């Protein structure tokens, strides 16, 4: 068996350097980061004001509604973790932590500041939401193990590890402020 060979490049053909071929990756990561940030920020806005998308106006947080009650009581009905999540539903401290988490993750990812902390917090929130709906077949999912929460967690990992080559953000200014404390990037 012979070793694989690389086809020769025809004379005069332009070959893009590796750096040029991968220059789009930081932009793609930035777009994914901004989209995930908007996903969290939109959830915060909708739950706060009851814009009628996931939260009707009568259940708006500013009108006295609980942003955690609906999901934690409905999604967990047959989950092995139902007792834990049902006990958290409607708790004022849990509501505040959840909403501050949505806001913090959304703003950090959209602006590109504190991305590592935002990605970790977002991953924790997504993992808890995944566990609240487990097993997935009970909530109408078509896959018993993987749902959008797991997909979003993988995007958070890409954003977390792509922080060094961050684009479309306030990262340069933020890094001047926090200095060499890379855990704050």
Task: Summarize this structure as a short list of keywords or feature phrases.
185 residues, mainly alpha, 8 helices, 0% strand
Helix and strand layout, with pairings?
Blueprint: H1 18-21, H2 24-49, H3 69-74, H4 82-88, H5 92-111, H6 115-132, H7 148-161, H8 171-178
**Main sheet attributes: strand count, strand direction, barrel closure:** none
The overall pLDDT, averaged over residues, is: 88
* Morphology call: globular
Number of strands: 0
**Helix/strand order:** HHHHHHHH
Tally of helical runs: 8
Can you give the helix content as a percent range?
Answer: 55-70%
Distance between the termini: 50 Å
Radius of gyration from the CA trace? 21 Å
Question: Structural class, from secondary structure content?
Answer: mainly alpha
Low-confidence parts lasting 5 or more residues at pLDDT below 50? none
Beta percentage is under 5%
Report what the structure shows.
The protein has 185 residues and is mainly alpha-helical. The chain is built from 8 helices and no strands. It is globular and about 60 Å long. It starts with 17 loop residues before the first helix and ends in a 7-residue tail after the last helix.
């Amino acid at each position: 068996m012979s070793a694989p060979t690389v086809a020769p490049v025809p004379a005069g053909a332009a070959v893009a350097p590796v750096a040029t071929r991968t220059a789009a990756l930081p932009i793609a990561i930035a777009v994914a980061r901004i989209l995930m940030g908007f996903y969290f920020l939109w959830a915060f806005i909708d739950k706060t004001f009851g814009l009628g998308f996931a939260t009707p106006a009568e259940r708006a947080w500013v009108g006295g509604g609980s942003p955690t009650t609906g999901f934690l009581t409905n999604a967990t009905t047959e989950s092995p973790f139902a007792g834990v999540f049902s006990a958290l539903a409607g708790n004022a401290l849990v509501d505040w932590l959840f909403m501050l988490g949505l806001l913090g993750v959304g703003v950090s990812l959209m602006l590109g500041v504190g991305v590592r902390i935002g990605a970790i917090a977002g991953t924790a929130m997504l993992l808890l939401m995944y566990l609240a709906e487990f097993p997935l077949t009970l909530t109408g999912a078509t896959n018993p193990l993987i749902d959008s929460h797991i997909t979003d967690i993988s995007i958070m990992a890409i954003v977390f590890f792509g922080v060094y080559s961050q684009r479309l953000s306030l990262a340069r200014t933020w890094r001047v402020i926090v200095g060499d404390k890379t855990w704050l990037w």
